[in-house]
Amino acid sequence: MFLPFLSRRARLLGRTALTCLALGVPVAGLAQTAETAAKTTDADTGTTALAPITVKGAGDGTGPVTSADPVTATGSANPMPVTEIPQSVSVVSDATLKASNADKLDGALGYVAGVVGQPYGYDSDTNWIFVRGFQATATGSFQDGLPNYSYAFGGFYIDPVLVERIEVLKGAASVLYGGANPGGIVNYVTKAPDGSDRGSATFGLDSEGRVWATLDKTGHLDDTTDYRLIAKSERVDGHGMFDAGFHGVLSGSLRKRLDSGAELSFGIDYTRVDESHAGSAWLPYYGTVAATDFGSIPRDFNTGEPGHDSYSRNQLMLRFGWKQQIGAWQVENKARLARSDVSEDSVYAYGYAGYALTPTDAAGTLSRLVFDQHSKTTEFADDLHATRTVQWAGAEHSLTFGAAYKYFRLDQVQASATGTALTVVDPQYGAAQPAAVPYIDQPLTQNQLGVYAQDQIRWGAGWIATLNARYDWIRTEAGTNAATGAAGSTRTDTKASYRLGLARNLPGGWTPYVSASSCFNPQIVNDSNGAKTSPETGRQVEAGVKWAPNRDFLLTAAVFDIRRKGVSQSAYDSGTGGYVYSQIGEVRSRGAEIEAQGRIAEGLKMTLALTKMNIEVQDDIDPTLIGKTPYSMPEEMAALKLDWTPGALPDWTFSGGVRWTGGSWADNADTLRVPPRAVYDIGVSHAFGDGWSANLAIRNVTDKTYVASCQTAYWCYYGERRNASLSITKTF
Question: What pTM does this model have?
Answer without folding.
Answer: 0.91
